[in-house]
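Before relying on records like the one below, remember that each one covers exactly one chain. Contacts with other chains, cofactors or solvent are not represented anywhere in the record.
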Amino acid sequence: MTDQVPPQTLGWIGIGRMGEVLATRLLDRGCDLTVYNRTSAKAGPLVDRGARAVDRPVDLADRDIVITMVAGSKDFEEVMTGPDGLLANPSRAPGLVVDASTVSMAVSSEIREQAALRGVTLLAAPVSGNPKAARAGMLSVAVSGPRDAYERALPYLRMLGRSVSYVGEGEAARLVKICHNLILGVVAQILAETTVLAESGGVARADYLAFINDSVLGSTFTRYKTPALVNLDYTPTFTNHLLRKDLELGLDAARQRNVPMPLTALTDQIVVSLIGAGYGEQDFASLLELVARGANLDLIPDPRFVPDGLGSPEQPTAER
């Protein structure tokens, strides 16, 4: 670690696909890290890299800063305020908790209040990107909460990705992330629709998407989703169940604020249909399948190599 980074002890809760990648980034930069995961075996690779593992979230109460990355609101409540939660020790608690999960603003606000009663500050710090983007150092982080706590956590947040944006007090970052994921769902749907339309007219998916990616409409997102759409590889980076959860969070926030969101509502129903068709645990790039079914188009995997924009190597040469 550099001289500019305060020597804080860190805890990490949640070693899923994204959590493992980000915790590894901290370890690779020399951080003193102790980890917890409900399935303890998942901590093995991090322990091999120098982390310590504990059996309960409360066992991280002696850490200076604890970062949480769990699947949803109920999981966040459990690891924070459950019987073995981080706040369960009456005599000790970390000074700062940074939650990188996507959870509801209501749950986050409630836990923020309970943490404050214990002298614990909560920062909301949801991230944008998938595990592959995280490995490439291309995540973005939106952060809200007390400004002094943000400054304290900033050196470590910068280790997680390429940009960190402070967006205000309280739950502002939760709303920013929800809005971000609404765009994600709507863009994925229109990308699926137009890809099927182009293919129905005889244009190969790879060729159509190469044009989009090199146009003013191309983005990090369209580029790193291109291999899945071309090769029909729906290995999950972000499942349809998780996308639906975030769409519902966004629609709930919109109802509370009387904001009309017809495109989001329609996309939510499409994702519900996709889950009903058996794609719930597949990556949300599988929206392509539902559009193709409606068009009576049989999709065939295109085996050609296409870049994902995340620094993947060039197409490997054939074995000799």
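The first helix runs from residue 17 to 28.
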